[in-house]
Amino acid sequence: MAASYTLVTGGSTGIGEAFARACAKRGRNLLLVALPGPELEATAESIRAAHGVEVRTLGVDLAALDGPSRVFGWCVANRTPVDFLINNAGAAGTAVFETSALEYSDLRIMVNVRALVLLSRLFIPMLKDWPQSYILNIGSLGGFYPIPFKSVYSASKAFVLNFSRALREELRNTSIQVSIVCPNGVETNPGTFVRIGAHGRVGRWSKIDRHVLAEKTLEAVFRGKAVIVPKAINKVLWVFHKVIPASVLAKFLRRRFDREVKVS
């Protein structure tokens, strides 16, 4: 069979770049998909020089209606079979829903939900060609909670969590393993630094470096883990949603995330 590739969406910067580098360290050829821009090829060239793997790039807007199909068509046309799909591309942020722009919510739905689902559907037949293959979805600890001021974002990540669990079960008797990682704060750009800082000590204790996140997540994926929650403190926070009454939790989350609104 032809050499296989790991496809990373949002692979030019941030968490996606970290996963791309972690995969390259393991000798995996890469397909990096991200918005068009100089960062995409610069990241690819840096990874090629550091690890000697093949890296191909595609600049595409996954929020566009034809974005996911363009990615799949590109892989087919260029004969780059994928055995690992990392659905990382996403949009975060904090906003008061009633005053937010329509485009704000639309972007989070189109990228966090629609693109992830359609890419998974398109690539499953290709992934089945391999004796072992993987889908890794990048979720969030926020997917376990209904978070005020991150209502669309947290709902989108709840969708990704349930979608990943369901798809894993559907594909149980195939060669494809589905996993999801649900980190808390990850410092990737000035906006995330500010939002994490708004949570004070809890934010500092629960955040994770993006490169550490990538390494730990890949280790867990290759061990067969279904739902990955990095760092012990985040596992404790994850338990909260099971034991705290919903009304109490909602008020607590409103107070915590009102801080993000004020610094956004």
Describe this structure in words.
With 264 residues, the protein is of the alpha/beta class. It has one domain (5-263): NAD(P)-binding Rossmann-like Domain (Rossmann fold). 53% of the residues lie in helices and 14% in strands. The chain has ten helices and seven strands. A seven-stranded parallel sheet has the order 3-2-1-4-5-6-7, with helices on both faces. Helix 1 links the parallel strand 1 (5-9) and strand 2. The longest helix is centred in the middle third of the chain and has 26 residues, at 102-127. The radius of gyration is 18 Å and the shape is globular. The chain starts with a strand and ends with a helix. 40% of the residues are buried. The mean pLDDT is 90.
Task: Provide a quick synopsis of the model.
This protein has helices spanning 14-25, 38-51, 67-77, 102-127, 151-170, 190-197, 200-206, 210-222, 232-243, 246-263; strands at residues 5-9, 29-34, 55-59, 82-87, 133-138, 176-181, 227-228. It is of the alpha/beta class. The model has no long low-confidence stretch (mean pLDDT 90).
> What is the radius of gyration?
18 Å
- The number of E-state strands comes to 7
CATH architecture: 3-Layer(aba) Sandwich
Strand order of the largest sheet: 3-2-1-4-5-6-7
The CATH C-level name is Alpha Beta
Sheet with the most strands, sense and barrel status: 7 strands, parallel
Structural class: alpha/beta
Basic shape = globular
Span between N and C termini? 49 Å
So what's the oligomer here?
Answer: single chain
Helix-strand topology string: EHEHEHEHEHEHHHEHH
Report the uncertain regions.
none
**Number of DSSP helical runs:** 10
Mean pLDDT: 90
CATH fold description:
Rossmann fold
Provide the helix percentage.
40-55%
Task: Assign the CATH superfamily.
Answer: NAD(P)-binding Rossmann-like Domain
How many domains comprise the coordinates?
1
